[in-house]
Amino acid sequence: MNNFLSQHAHEQLDHEMVMIEVNLDDCSSEVLAYTMDQLLAAGANDVYYTSIYMKKNRPAYKLSVLTSPTKQQELEEIIFKETTSFGLRFFPVSCHRLGREFYKAKTQWGEVTVKIGIYQGERIKFSPEFEECRALAEKHNLPLQLIYDEAKSIAISQNK
Amino acid sequence: MNNFLSQHAHEQLDHEMVMIEVNLDDCSSEVLAYTMDQLLAAGANDVYYTSIYMKKNRPAYKLSVLTSPTKQQELEEIIFKETTSFGLRFFPVSCHRLGREFYKAKTQWGEVTVKIGIYQGERIKFSPEFEECRALAEKHNLPLQLIYDEAKSIAISQNK
Amino acid sequence: MNNFLSQHAHEQLDHEMVMIEVNLDDCSSEVLAYTMDQLLAAGANDVYYTSIYMKKNRPAYKLSVLTSPTKQQELEEIIFKETTSFGLRFFPVSCHRLGREFYKAKTQWGEVTVKIGIYQGERIKFSPEFEECRALAEKHNLPLQLIYDEAKSIAISQNK
Amino acid sequence: MNNFLSQHAHEQLDHEMVMIEVNLDDCSSEVLAYTMDQLLAAGANDVYYTSIYMKKNRPAYKLSVLTSPTKQQELEEIIFKETTSFGLRFFPVSCHRLGREFYKAKTQWGEVTVKIGIYQGERIKFSPEFEECRALAEKHNLPLQLIYDEAKSIAISQNK
Amino acid sequence: MNNFLSQHAHEQLDHEMVMIEVNLDDCSSEVLAYTMDQLLAAGANDVYYTSIYMKKNRPAYKLSVLTSPTKQQELEEIIFKETTSFGLRFFPVSCHRLGREFYKAKTQWGEVTVKIGIYQGERIKFSPEFEECRALAEKHNLPLQLIYDEAKSIAISQNK
Amino acid sequence: MNNFLSQHAHEQLDHEMVMIEVNLDDCSSEVLAYTMDQLLAAGANDVYYTSIYMKKNRPAYKLSVLTSPTKQQELEEIIFKETTSFGLRFFPVSCHRLGREFYKAKTQWGEVTVKIGIYQGERIKFSPEFEECRALAEKHNLPLQLIYDEAKSIAISQNK
Fold first, then answer.
1. Domain count within chain F
2. Averaged pLDDT score across all residues of chain B
3. Where is the signal peptide (chains A, B, C, D, E, F) (predicted)?
């Protein structure tokens, strides 16, 4: 199994993360997408939107940003500068992350990296890198799912 | 049962209705709510929004407007003037509506109109007018659901 | 009122609950439904999904699991084994629950249990057990709402 | 390849289908779920809900029912009897369905049926029956995804 | 710049806020809208709904209420009395609010108040009051967006 | 006004468009995003997803593809090859598009193209090209909204 490359092979428990949330009701979708890009580029761990229903019949979006405390101020500044928000809220969260390894699966169309999740010392999750599958699918003009399935299957077999 | 007031007691089938749809991705929620009001005031039969996912990572809203063909042009003009849309689409739909009657239910807190739905000659649906329940709830400082339930229960009993 | 059966008649305030959340973007809906079943069977207090918008144009789902701390590890293991997730987050929440009683309402079609909510010593909520209404609706070939409404109405009357 | 069982091996184009839609704003979720069951049991081809935003600040659900014209009246009756709706709408749709075959994949944990989709004579889609995977997962206490992946992989290999 | 009216011109950081959440699966949309009104009238800082997917195939809504601790008990009472909920949960959140000023923009159609957001001493956000724009739009029979854009543009120019 | 560039300056009404829809319940979000890209690259007029609730407790997505009939077959092939779908549906729709012009707005930070919508001969809609605003925002390290607002304001002024 020496094709398996360890990144941080042990699980992590991080009690010092922060979730920032803000409800946006007068912001166009273009700006929502742009703000997501800015936040990720500045180092947010995760960014996502949820469709919500606000007062005065307004369909709106909740922006959620997961971050370490060291990045919090910079991300809040982006939110205040790019969106229409006059206020945001935040609360502490803990994160539990699997250990990770990477395996190079040699499919008949080319090599695909497979990300592997390790839970209590056991390899339990095999996830081919989507962008690499995409590149091969476009190069060989094949359905992407075909390449994804073969890469996953090879990594699982190697692990037995 | 002479408290029952017939509106159009027989079911209707209308094959000449139109559904207008438009995807809005750069329109604030305030404008969405305002446009809904304008469309209803101008005679749309129904207006609603659905949260959708567009290209370029944009969460957006689909506006749906149900109308008779005679109102279609006026409603399209409102959509084009008030929203950010450069194009809309529409298709024909048929509508099947129940016959309707109204009954005055005398609750212990005051009278509430109950809308009754008639399917193939039979009273099958009893729906207290929400705004009247709300007015009584606020006047008597009671949970609205209590008044709603009693009005419905009285109308059902009268029908037996 | 001796038909009322007390379960835990007083309200409860529990400050030791945990909310686990995880964003899933490469998991089929079949697996989402299956995971929900597994989590509930293992003792989660509540499980629900929310549709979210992630980066790279990916519509996805957030899984939320409410649990006591004693079950947290077991539920995390299910999440890691059944879904595609490489990480989850959690935070403490407090729960406020109404006192509960159960009343057997004798409708004309059969008996239906009504769950009653008690707030500061007062019975304020009457909720017929849905599955029992469903069984009677199917047995007598009647609209379910009819049976539900009668059971609720009987329980409310008995309480006066 | 004599393990492949043909159902209707050729693609179908059916221009006579009907989509029924109805907006429900005063109907509990329990009733929504029950109505879906009733509609499927009565022969609807597909049933689903979409979250929508209606006037007067009301979050609501749109019910969509795909059906052949021969079932339309029966399904409309269920909608009118079980839900709070006073009106529904419908419009004609065409359906394009792949040809289908079924293959029995012999996994190390037991047999799983794989549904295969045929487009213009070519097998392009391999979909293990979820309930069979579920049964094996529960019997052997294994992650469901593991069994699903192996069954799919076997069917794809056999097809080469 | 003496047209700018300061409200609380400095940013605020409030660590003592509370988020109340409750999942509602047997509550009509009319009641959801009414409950939102009651909560806002009683002093909730923010109220919104999110569409969620619960067990037993039930599409439902999560109610979220942001409040100061002094209002928490009163708001919980409204939730328990008006909705079908038997339990709710809550957790502490911190709020970060921009400083605010108000500017009277003199458009060609009339005066519009513009709310201004101040981040670290700098005016960064200009938001015309929607209801005032709406009144002018209806009075002059013009697209609302036109008036909104002019008011915003005037306030930005004055700030330079 | 010779800076205004006419594309197809008159409104269009096209009665020959097709809306393709397909419900996807066992397809990962990565594949959903990839399929959207493939469909747009192949010439679909519009592609979007809607979150829906299917039977057996499955949160899923509806894919909607707006197309001319000449592209329909090619787009159906992409759907069948890339997604997990065994069937799709389609129905005819009419499209009403505004006339379009383009104006080069000279902002203090650089030129931005503004798309203008023409309804019955009148310029009623001014929409700055988002990607151009984005490029200037990144170049000058400014909030994107600032540049967007100025470009829009210049185009509106020129039109008077």
1. 2
2. 91
3. none
